What does this fold into?
Amino acid sequence: MKKITPAKAGTYTVLTFWALTTLYPFVWVILNSFRERGLIRKDSFSVPLPGSGFTMGNYEKAMERFDFGNAYANSLIVSIAVTIAVVLIAGFAAYGLVRFRFRLRGLCYSLIMAGMMFPVFSTIIPVFRMEAAWGIASSGNRWLSLLAVILPQIAGNLCFAIIVLMGFIESVPMELEESAYMDGCNVFQVYFHIIMPAAKSSFATVAIFSFLWSYNDLFTQNFFLRVPREKTITLLLNEISSQAGVDYGLMAASVVLIVVPVLFVYVALQKHIIKGLTAGAVKG
Amino acid sequence: MGPTLYRKKAPLVAFLLPAFVFLILFLYYPFVQNIINSFSHINGLGAPAQGLNDPWYVNYATLFADPKLRTALGNTVLLTLCTVVFQVGIALILALLVDSIRVGAQLFRTLYFFPIVISATALGLMFNLIFLYNGGMLNQLLVNLGIAAENIDWKDPDHFLFTMFAPVMWQYVGFYFVILVTGLNNISQDLYEAAALDGCTGFKRVRYVTLPLLRNVLCTCLVLAITGALKVFDLPWVMFGAGMPQDQGWLTGTYMYDQTFNRGNVDYGSTIAILIVVLGVLFSNIANRVFKPRDDI
It folds into this structure.
């Protein structure tokens, strides 16, 4: 049998304590989302069982009062469009910057590095005014409004994505590309048939952080999406928090409806997600 | 002498053009326009600018005289300091502990990182429930355990800073934890063995072997934490809205949003945005200078 030293026990105690702080709040919210109204105040820690406070009513009310389906659809449309566009555009730019030698290369690179420094606060007002002048922003049309969010979100993720992809494309050996070219491939075929498959995992990384940033962003979405049927999941939640008042069960149920799908995706893809979101901070 | 494949420069245009069209339209041009806006007179988000302000620097003068902005700045600076000390500090302790165990390390990593993928809006709503005055998790826990005699109003002027900062810091501990653990894994086991031969173990080993070798990774974390703290918006906005309680709860981000959107002070909002950029450049320069990465290790 292995010996358990006091130091080891202490280590596990501290680690478990922090794990509880990240896990227990979610468990607490899930428990209370099934609790009958009014019982939260008396005892929020017990497990609600049928006959002693268990109810599905909070979920029924949440689905009835708020259009979760529509909000999910809007969120997915925005985030998927942003992800695809960022991967395509950033991949192209990173490839061009890594493989070609040209005069303005240094300038282009500096511009991209500088682009990472602009916080969204400093560009959002002119972007809104420009898109309003184009007739995309606050037009009242759902699709145009979603487009109005998608465009600046693409730009906001591009610089970081290009920097991350450049690092990976650099490490692809060039001999393969050269021989493909000898076999009659043009540059675009080389990119799609050699570079993209070779740097597959880094493209996945970029896709994941673009998706999550876009999906979780409140600031940009709050600027452009004002009408109920344009609302995304984050905006719907924001609305619920101001409308639910003292109906805590309804709030808890809404939080669960938002968190649980993300939880499943996270458990399934956690390795890629953790790598994706810490990319750029650590090499390799 | 590059490979023949990349001698022809014509395809380059196709590769770079889409990215730079986006960046110019949605990043560089708005950034410059934002500077111009801060000197102009604009009444509404959709309204055209009505010429320059009189005097042209009036927004910047207001910036220095605005007590709410001073509050926002103070809170933001405090949040940045707390982030550096607690967020990175807790992450470092957890990373060192996890590095010393074998069983369960992967599980802890998964659990610690989880809050980062949840939108700050959902977390804000969740923390609103946890910090509720009547029936919130924290109050029930404290009263049941006998730590507090009665319910605490977590959003009153005495407690709101903790209530606002704790969730922000809590959410991102796992992020720095993962970065630090990766850094720890890169430290060669031979060095530890050599240190053990010299009688260097436990805390001594952490102090004289691990921390110096982790220096560069730690610097990266600190710079990221500082620049991240300046961008905080979602969680405080969902939990506190416009400057609660009594105009004491502003951050630079929430104040900028409120001025622009709710008060129609578009040009003043642009000016605050510029202040945020200046702060960001200033803070990250200071951080880079103080925690300069070293090549000799």
Observations:
- Residues 32 and 44 of chain A are 7 Å apart (CA to CA).
- Residues 6-61 of chain A form one domain.
- Chain A touches chain B through 101 residues (CB under 8 Å).
